[in-house]
Specification:
By secondary structure, the protein is α/β, with parallel strands linked by helices. The chain has helices at about 20, 40-50, 70-80, 95-110, 140-145, 165-175, 175-195, 205, 210-220, 235-265, 310-330, 345-355, 370-375, and strands spanning about 5-10, 30-35, 55-60, 85-90, 115, 120-125, 135, 150-155, 200, 225-230, 230-235, 265-280, 280-295, 295-305, 335-340, 360.
Length: about 375
């Protein structure tokens, strides 16, 4: 049996329709997309990826994704165009009627059928059932993965590791997070105020705050800022951004790079800008840290905002936005995490649990690597 073509059932879950096509051991010459009217745009997204990888594609339209008899007749007609055993059904996607109808036709005619296990990222043969399955290769990269969900990567931060001077700085902050926490909130505020001008004046009371003074000294030693009398001065916009919370994003990125090899992370990016269309209008989002592991998308949001009890709305908005992006850009199997140097309120913790968003905050930060490893597993 030589399988040259895959029949896929186009649905909102794109990953199972991509990963078998990108696996060199399993790669077909052609993909036929069974497409209902509401899935035409998603079919286009998939076709871009197939064509880039040298796989031909064509569409086979159905007018009703819930009419089993119509779907059965359509699939039967398609099968007449292919040699026995050359067309395999990927039964993972589509509506349930699409999957059932296509399965019945292929099974009755003893044609190959496979299913992609959504959590194990593995091909399972439904017919012939005695044929051994296999793990799919992790070939897909972030730009292709996101494109499959209608998003285009338009920019991202550098892929270099964290410089030693910055590692020492963030390690000092993370190790003594309880000591620096309140001052970090203040410095974050003043760095935000310095946007554009790169300078901001502190009042006399603030300069007497020993915690803030210690923190300013810490950043000064790394030449990220300087204090002249009561004026806080940043050398560059990049330095201001780093003090304004960029240090946390860079620290998290560094920790993800450290575990990349041992966990098998296949691609990773920081400050990833993605553009997508929503109701005919362009929408831009930025993902602080995002990576792929076993063809599953992980999104990390790094926040230096203090989500206090009285600010429940802001905390909820952050979580809802993260949950929405997870679903839009990664589908059902995607995972998300919120990382903050402040202790979240009980409301934020409860809401994160409801949305299945992992948290690593405040005194948990020194154990971030362990949290990441547990989250990935």
């Amino acid at each position: 049996m030589t399988i040259k073509t895959h029949l896929i059932l186009v649905s909102a879950q794109a990953v199972p329709n991509i990963t078998p096509v990108l696996d060199e051991r399993f790669k077909p010459r052609e993909v036929v997309l069974l497409v209902s009217p509401d899935m035409v745009l998603r079919a286009e997204w998939l076709e871009h990826i197939y064509n880039k990888r040298g796989v031909k594609s064509r569409r086979w339209l159905i007018n009703n994704a819930y009419d089993i008899e119509l779907i059965r007749d359509t699939v039967l007609e398609l099968l007449t165009e292919y040699e026995d055993g050359s067309l395999a059904l990927n039964a993972t996607g589509g509506t349930k009627p699409m999957s059932i109808a296509a399965y019945e036709v292929f099974r009755d005619l003893k044609q190959p059928i496979f299913y992609v296990h959504p959590e194990e990222d593995r091909v399972i043969w439904l017919y012939p059932s005695k044929q051994a399955g296999h793990d799919l290769a992790d070939r897909i990269k972030l730009p292709e993965f996101l494109q499959a969900y209608g998003a285009k990567v338009t920019g991202q931060g550098d892929s270099l590791g964290v410089q030693a001077v910055y590692r020492e700085l963030t390690e000092e902050i993370i190790t003594r997070i309880a000591y620096y926490s309140k001052a970090l909130g203040s410095l974050n505020y003043w760095a935000q105020k310095a946007t554009g001008s790169l300078t901001v004046d502190l009042d006399a009371q603030q300069t007497k705050d020993r915690f803030l003074a210690d923190l300013i000294d810490l950043f000064s030693e790394s030449k990220l800022l300087r204090l002249e009398k009561n004026r806080l001065i940043f050398a560059t916009e990049q330095d201001r951004f780093y003090v304004n919370g960029g240090w946390l994003e860079q620290h998290v990125y560094g920790q993800c790079l450290n575990i990349k090899k041992q966990t098998g992370i296949q691609d990773i990016g920081r400050s990833v800008q993605v553009d997508r269309q929503h109701q005919g209008k362009p929408v831009r989002n930025e993902l602080d840290i995002t990576f792929l592991k076993d063809n599953r998308l992980y999104i990390i949001e790094c926040k230096t905002k203090n989500f206090k009890d009285k600010d429940q709305g802001a905390g909820a908005d952050t979580l809802y936005k993260l949950d929405t992006l997870k679903d839009l850009l990664g589908g059902l199997q995607a995972k998300s995490m919120l990382i903050s140097f402040t202790q979240p309120s009980e409301f934020v913790v409860q809401r994160a649990g409801d949305l299945k968003i992992a948290l690593c905050c405040y005194k948990e930060l020194p154990y971030l690597t362990d949290k990441l490893l547990a989250w990935i597993k």
